Amino acid sequence: KLEESLVLGSETENTIILDPSGAEPSSFSVTVNYDAKVTSDASWLCFNPSTVPGDEKPHTVAINASMNDSGAARSAMVTVTLPKGLSKSFNVSQDLSSLKAITEISTTEQFVAFIENASNADLYTDGLVTKLTKDIDMKGITLTPAEDYIGILDGDGHKILNLVSGAPLFVKTSGNAVVKNLTIDRSCVFDVAPEYSSKWGILVGSLGPADATDKCLIENCVNMADITMSKANTAQAFVASMTGRVGTGSVVDGCENHGSVTLSPKEAITKEIRGAGIAGSVNGAIRNCKNNAPVTISPSDITNKLYAAGVAANVMNIDMENCVNTVNGKVTVLPDSFTSSKDGYVGGITGYNGGANIKNSRNFGDVRINCNLDKVRVGGLLGFQSTQKKSMVTLENCVVNCDVTGIFASKGGNGSTTPLNSCGLVVGRFGGQGNTTNVINIGTVENPVKVSGSVTVYEGETVTADADNYTNLLTGAGSKTSLCGGSTTQMLNVKFEIVTKE
Questions:
Q1: Which of 34, 68, 94 is a domain's end point?
Q2: Are residues 319 and 428 in the same domain?
Q3: Number of neighbours of residue 391 by Cβ within 10 angstroms
Q4: Cα angle vertex 350, ends 434, 315, to 5°?
Q5: Less crowded by CB within 10 Å, the N or C end of the chain?
Q6: Dist. CA 288–CA 57, nearest whole Å
Q7: Radius of gyration for the chain, computed over Cα atoms and rounded to the nearest angstrom
């Protein structure tokens, strides 16, 4: 035997696929004229036999793999080596085992596998906790979002880094799903993809169904990354850092946004566009949240409604409590070529209040619109309050200290004989006033709304609030503020007080 000889079976010419569960071994054949060693670069593989006799007869070698619960598909190289150095190698691969949910995530591969399989309700059941044990670096990884999720994802204070995506992590959540204690690092980049823009948040597109009683939750999450939308689903776009929509029964609590939200789709929006720092349309509850970055909406055109705000684009029949839009949370709606004949709602805390009880919330971010129509309502606290007829609707213990600028197509500036502009320090415009004497009761005697700042309208000077004139600046057209030349709606439980900006 002067020359080594090694022949592998034809099954090694292609990658050998291994059983994900590890229950069924695979095999290959080998014929050698010297005793040969079978080895691998993977610790999860072993061979029987691991030494093949050099008798020039074909021998079958079993490939035994452990169950793949690593969190992702994996591959390895198998090598057969003779004593004098002759060797041949081939590849094996093993898919992720479908028999076990991932409950701890420490690698990028595990995180990708978790998201790709999170929609499997048999695997990720209601109440099952999956926890991050390390920061996850997504550099160079394309992530396919989960269509639905009913489990609990606990970031445990860890970060997602270097994720470049146009999709939410979860298109929607249902049941009692929870996403908590997770930070999105500023190294991430998000440009909203048109196919997801109808309901879009970095974490969740739709947090629970709109009109169902699912009790989904986003809690103690932080976003540091900027969000843009250069293209959009032309029907509608609801976009914010945490979630595009909060369904009835669901809650966003204790979350912060430090990344800018800039929605500038080139396509005309045929229905609605809603943009905010924390959440888009809110039918559930939002509490203890902070927006600390600008929100800018500048569509090429829109043929329906627009909502923009620092915290939540609109709130409906829910509790909104202990929320703040900081001095960095400037809310801007541009450009002046915006020609929709429909309504717009722009505010520091929320654009539209459809019956929510708003408590202990503060706006310090300037609010500015520049639109070619008169139907946009802009306010330092909220753009539009739909009704005062519900007993639970108050603006209790809220604070406004910002500059509000309402530039509309019409003039209606200070001293005009017709009140055209719906622009005010507290509320741009009220609907459904409580009585015919134009008396609006907001806040409470014990916890009034505290107001300071200024109001500027088209072809009118900037008016800065003080203890003598602030009652004329609280609300705008439709509520007959004297800023625009009409009679003043009396707003009870409001006081002039300059609160230090946050």
A1: 94
A2: yes
A3: 7
A4: 70
A5: N
A6: 74
A7: 30
Q: Which domain CATH number covers 14?
A: 2.60.40.10
112, part of any domain:
yes
Indicate if 235 and 306 belong to the same structural domain. Answer: yes
Q: Which residue range is the domain that position 260 belongs to? A: 189-203+212-496
Pairing of strands 306-309, 272-276: parallel
We report the CATH number of the domain holding residue 256 as 2.160.20
Task: Note whether 88 and 109 are same-domain residues.
Answer: no
Amino acid identity of residue 15, one-letter, is: T
The length of the chain in residues reads 502
Residue 446: what pLDDT?
Answer: 84
β-pairing, 104-105 vs 129-132, is: parallel
28 & 116 share domain: no
Could you say which residues of the chain have pLDDT below 70?
1, 98-99, 234, 335-342, 372-374, 387-393, 407-421, 432-441, 458-460, 477-491
142 token code pair: 């394309």
Answer yes or no: is 406 within a domain: yes
Q: Rounded distance, CA 177 to CA 284, Å?
A: 14
For residue 81, CA distances in Å to 39, 50, 100, 464 come to 8, 11, 36, 85
| pLDDT of res. 435 | 44
Per the structure, how many domains does the chain have?
3
Structure tokens given for 460: 């009118």
> Residue ranges of the alpha helices (H) in 83-129?
108-117
Nearest to 378 by CA among 302, 455, 442, 324: 455
pLDDT tens per residue across span 234-291: 678 899 999 999 999 999 999 999 999 999 888 777 788 999 999 999 999 999 999 9
pLDDT of residue 286: 96
pTM of the model: 0.79
Residue at which a domain ends, from 79, 94, 109: 94
| Count of beta carbons in the 10 Å neighbourhood of residue 389 | 12
Residue 440 CB contacts under 8 Å (≥ 6 apart), including other chains: 388, 430, 433, 434, 475, 479, 489, 490, 491, 492
Tokens representing residue 276 in the block: 């905010």
Q: Are residues 49 and 128 in the same domain?
A: no
Q: Are 412 and 418 in contact (CB under 8 A)?
A: yes
Query: Residue 126 and residue 255: Cα distance in Å, rounded?
Result: 23
Task: Report the pLDDT value the prediction gives residue 483, as an integer from 0 to 100.
Answer: 41
Same domain, 110 and 85: no
Alpha-carbon distance of 151 to 216, in angstroms, equals 10
